[in-house]
Every structure is written in C-alpha cells, then in structure tokens.
Amino acid sequence: MTDTIAMILILAGGLAGTVALRRAWQAKAADKPRWRALGWAAIGGSMAWPAWVLGPARGPFIAASLVPVAALVVVGAGAQVRAARAGRAANGSLAPEPVERSTTRWRTTLRWLLAGPIGMIAAMAVGICYAVWIPGAPQTRLLIGALIVPVVWGGAMAWTLADARILRATAVLVGTALAGFAISILKGFA
Amino acid sequence: MTTPSQPTVLERASAKRKKPLLARVPADFVRAVLKGHSALGLAFAAAIYLVCLSGSLAVFAHEFQRWELAGLPRVEVLSAEAAQRALAEAVRRGGAGVEHVYITPPSADLPQATVHVEGTAGKESTWLADAEGRIAARADMPWTEFITRLHIHLHLPQVWGMFLVGLTGVALLSSLISGILAHPRILRDAFHLRLGGARRLQEADLHNRIGVWALPFHVLVSLSGAVLGLTTLIVGVLGMALFQGDTAKVYALFIAQEPREDPRPAPVIDLRPMFAQVERLAPGGQVSLVMLEHPTEMGAAALFYVDRGGRRLADRDSFAFERGGRLYHEKRAADANLGESILGSIGKLHFGWFGGYLVKIAYALLGLGLTYLAAGGVTIWLARRRDKRNPAPGLERLWAATLWGQPAALAGAALTALLAPSAGTMVPLATWGAVTLVGLASAVRLSVFAIRRIGRVFTGALLLATATIHAGTIGGTDPVAWTIDGVLVLSGAALLFARRRSRPAP
Fold first, then answer.
1. Is B339 close to A140, i.e. CB distance below 8 A?
2. Minimal CA–CA distance to B460: which of B488, B487, B432?
3. Structure ipTM
4. Main-chain dihedrals φ then ψ at residue A104, nearest 5 degrees
C-alpha cells in the first residue's frame, strides 16, 4: 500500500514538474527561470525522495520509470492537431539534413568494421582494463567493466559512423584495443 | 565603424554564451552525426523493433503464465512437505536420468507452484502442483515461453541469438547517443508535438519527444539488455584474457560452486530438513526458487534462493546444501558488494520486475514508445526521401509490411499457442514465422495503405479471437487472466475501429 501511494506521488511530482517546465517553455524571457527552476526541482525531488521511502536503489529506479510516463502525458496533452496535408513541412521546423559524403566500397566496409567488431574489441579492452586496474572487490570491477563495454562500443559506433576521417577512427580504436589488452595482461587479474 | 543596429563582438559573444549547450554544436557536426544515426537506425531498425515489441510484452511474462494456466489450481503457499511430494512425483514422471529440477514456489504475482524437470537426453517437462504437492497437470505455457525466448534470443541457437540481441542493445544505445548529439533543438522543441500536418514533421516530433522525455528508461533498458545479451561473450573474453581461458573462474566469483560429482543412484533428495534450515537462516524470507543438481544421485545438491522482501533491488539470499543437509554455500543480499548487487538487480531492472503492476505498466508503455521510436526513425527517412522527390515506394511497402506483420504474427502465435498448448513453442513459432513471411511477401503487390489496413484488421480479429477462445475454453477465476482477456478485447476492437477511420494518405 505504501508503495502504491509513493508511486502515485512520484507520478504527481513528475506531472507537476513537467507542467512547470512547459510553462517555462511558453513563458516570456523574464518568467522562464522561475518556472524552469520549479520544474527541475519537482522532477529532481521526485527522483530523489523515493530513495528513502522505496529503497536506496529501487526508489530512484521506480521514479526513473514513472516520471517519463508523466512527462509524456504532459507532452501529449499539449499536442497540436493540424489538418492533414501532403507535401513538405517548413524546413525551419525540421532537423538538419544528414551530410552527403562521397564514399567508396572499402571505406564503407572499414566504417562498419570499425562500428562493429573493431569497436567491440576496443570496448572489451577498455572494460577489461578497468576490471584489472581499478581497485575494489573483484565482482564489482568485473560488473562495472562489463557495463563499460556496451557504453564504449555504442559510443565508438556513433563516432565511427559519423566521422569523415576514417583513418583517425581506425588508429584510435586499434590503438585502444592493443593498449587496453596489453596493459591488462601485463598486470593480470588479482 | 559599427552601426547601432549591428551587434558588437562582445554582444555576439555574450549571445553565444547564452545559447543552450546543444544549440552551440556546429551544424556540420550535427549533420555528420545525423548521417551516422540514420545509417545505424536503418541497419538495425527491424531488429530493434522486434526486440522492443517482444520485450514490451515479455514484461508481463508472469501474467501470461497465469493467463495460460488460469484453469488450474492457484496456490498461496507451498509447504516443505508439499514441495517434497511435488518433487518426488515430478521426478518419477520425468523418467530416468534427471539432471536438474527447478521448483518455483508460489509468490504474490505468480500464485502457482511449478516443478521443471530436465532429463539427461535434453527431455524437459514442467508440472503444476497443488497446495498439497500433488501434480495437478502439465504446466504448458507455450505462448509465455515463445514470447520470452523471442525477446531473449530470437529463437536462434542461444549463444548466437543472445549475442544478436545484445548487439541490438548496443546499436540502440549508440542511436540514443547520436540521437541526442544530433538534436540541437532539444530545448526549443521540448514540448512541440504537431500531429496531423505534414507527415515528416509529425513523425519527427513523435520520434524526438518520445526519445528525449523517456531517455532514462531507454538508456536503462538498452544498457541492461546489451550487458545481458553479451554476457557469454564478455565472460569468454574475460576468461581468455585474465584466467587463461577458464571462464568457470569468472562464474565462480558470482555463483555457488557445483557439488562434488557422485553419480551413484540414490533416492530423491529430501528437501524438508533444508527448508527447516532455510527458515532458521533467513527468518521471514520467502523461498522463490529451489535448483536441484542430480536429485537422484548420491552427489545431489539443492540451491535455495530466498527473497527477503525488503526495499533492496537485489534482495535475494542463496543457500546451497549437499544431500545430507550440510550447508556448503551461503550468500546474503545484505552483505553483497556493489558488483553482486548489480548482478542481482540487472534482470529485474531490464524487465521491470521490481515495483509491482504500476512499474510493469510503465515499462510496457515506455517499451512500446521505444518500439515506435525504431519504427518512426525509418518512417522519417522514407518521408525525407519523398520530400526530396526521391521516393522509395518498394521500401515504404516493405517497412509497412514489417511494422504491421509483427503485431499480426504475434497475435497469431498467441492464438495457436492457446489452441495447441501441449505442442510446445513449435506451433506459435511456426505461426509467427509464416505470418511474418506472408506479411513481407504482401509488400510485393499491396500498397502501403492496403498493408496497414489488412495488418490492423488481421491483428484486431486475431486478438478478439484469442480472448474469446481463452475465455471459452480456459476461463478460470484468476482476475489477472480476465484482465488480459479484457485488454485483448479492447486492443482488438481499437484496431478494428481504427481501420474504419483510416483513409489513404494523400
């Protein structure tokens, strides 16, 4: 029962915070800071206080799943419904166009190799390096190392698919992989 | 000389400082990141869509199990005596050469007691026990198994399937990173949701608003999913790099050691004294799983997982006993270090199994939002091509068939699982595969509008049929099962109603 009440309060806090942020978004320049501070305070508070009521880790994670729902409800409630029309939207409302770059087959292949297996190996090297060199309980080092792997791999993927200087990306990722594994094996896991 | 109407260098610098951080990102950088975001999204869109859609449903795996077994006895408590009786009976029915047995006592959200038996020849069976431990029936839940396996390893060989799902998680995480970097108007557009006008603007608004406002959830599920999917690979590399290829040493840091092998035959292991010990070791705890190794050999062992019911995410103690009742492994959640706590939490955090129904509903809604994010990304790309007078009608049809084929395929799988419960996951898997293929083939001849319309009607009709057949054949008194039937009816009716309102896009 306490859990349910706490969750309803989290939802209410999320709604209030997002409504305040929406007011800041709509307000004139002078009023913006006030509403913005109120909105972020409500959202921050809704993420923080559940730690005391619902558990130090469980509470914030419950809030992290409920506050976005509340926020999307507010965004949805403010939707503008327009008459359907064919054709293009005004350019100013849209994101910029992706860059057009000339490429060759080998560059495309290398780019995807960097985003895929080479990025993965580099990410593994960083994760293992963390597990080997950072002090702490072995389980903690291994788990945090394991969490680092997808983050670094994802970052490498985003970078290599965007960067026009593909040789730079190659050098950095191959260098990271070699250096990471070398210094990890040098020390070993203890 | 500077005229009064022109800003000075200082004013320009001041204005630049006041711009939000993301708005100061150079346009060329944004366009380059957008290029990568677009390429990655196109490459992984179908996989992300399928994994997210199946994941949104898998949140309710326990509820689906109750739905499939609704006509069978519900159990509030399984005593030690009843657990022992259920074990003996399930082992007898499992035949000779039992390797492992998993006893799942009832819990608040799953008031059923099941015993899963794994034989030496890969033969597996799951039984449902009543409160006295009598085997009531086979616990056939092909839909639950189908949807969870689809999400976890896409029904591919487990190692490869999990890797592919993990890779999809990484691609999703990468798309989130590039999506934020490629969104300089993140604050200016924070509340814009312009529906019904130009298609591209509508889809872009939906894509960006869902992506930004639910970002904590998206990061949480993609990161945890990537780690879970890549576990085998990460452990393999760790073992190779740090433990001379011995991955068992990595696992030994986290899980109870296997008992000493002694294959001499013996009566079924007696769990009753172990239950009594567990009661003393973890008073007030609730046994959530008992894993048995070789229960009919002298080298038998039992590993008890006990939920302590606290406010911790990782609240599970574990105790392992040898056949004679000697405790040889004891791990308490309260004493766990950060790594052990993360390991104990990551599955719950990924599936939303840590805060009751409200959190599960939030996970399902946000998961469907993430599914829409994957779908909308490709739709925006297709609309952009159309805007640039370079339309790709074949790809538009193929994408519509992919999007609408999956709800229909999953609804078909649920229906056939219900009609042939004892046939395992083969029937729903075959249905899902067949409907998916037919859906994709429809892209050859049908227009996008026709594919959408047929997809909606077919999915809606299948959902209504599933609910009707379930209510008519299984029924039962479980409110959760009736709630699922109600949701199926409402969803089916909504899809059919949407069909009547939909008109071809201009």
1. yes
2. B488
3. 0.93
4. -125, 170
8 A C-beta contact, residue B405 and residue B446: no
A 3-32 residues inside an 8 A Cβ radius of B? 3-4, 7, 18, 21-22, 25-26
Mean pLDDT along residues B40-67? 96
Of residues A83 and B246, the one with the higher pLDDT is: B246
Phi, psi of A179 (to 5 degrees): -65, -45
- How many angstroms separate the CA of residue A114 from the nearest CA in chain B? 13
Residues of A within 8 A of B370 (CB-CB) are: none
- Between CA B290 and CA B268 the distance in angstroms is 14
Q: Considering only alpha carbons, which residue of chain B is nearest residue A20?
A: B191
Contacts of B208 in chain A (CB under 8 A): 95
Rounded to 5 degrees, what are φ and ψ at B6? -95, 135
Token representation of residue B115: 């015993």
| Contact residues, chain A, for B214 at CB < 8 Å | 68-69, 71-72
B339 touches chain A (CB under 8 A): yes
- The two most distant CA atoms of chain A are separated, in Å, by 66
Which residue has tokens 């070993």? A188
For residue B76, count other CB atoms closer than 10 A to its CB: 10
Nearest CB partner across the interface for B36, out of A65, A143, A162? A162
Helices and strands (H and E) in chain A: how many: 8, 1
Q: Is the dihedral of CA B310, B316, B320, B324 positive or negative?
A: positive
Pairing outcome for strands B286-293 and B194-195 = unpaired
Interface contacts (A, B; CB < 8 Å): 267
Cα distance from N-terminal residue to C-terminal residue, chain A: 46
Query: Cβ of B313 under 8 Å from any chain A Cβ?
Result: yes
Mean pLDDT of chain B: 91
Are B241 and A128 in contact, with CB atoms under 8 Å apart? yes
Give the separation between CA B43 and CA A120, rounded to whole angstroms: 17
Does this model's pTM top 0.90? Answer: yes
3-class DSSP state for residue B75?
coil
Residues B108-126 have a mean pLDDT of 90
* DSSP assigned state of B137: E
Q: Which of B288, B334, B291 is nearest to B314 (CA)?
A: B334
Total Cβ atoms within 10 A of residue A40 = 14
* 3-class SS of residue A100: coil
- Taking contacts as CB-CB distances below 8 angstroms, the residues of chain B near A29 are none
Identify the pLDDT of residue B22: 62
Look up residue B159 and give its two tokens. 């190692």
pLDDT tens digits, A49-61: 999 999 999 999 9
A68 Cβ under 8 Å from any chain B Cβ: yes
Do A162 and B242 make contact, defined as CB atoms within 8 angstroms? no
Residue of B nearest to A145 (CA): B234
Find the range with the poorest average confidence among B3-7, B242-246, B300-304, B490-494.
B3-7
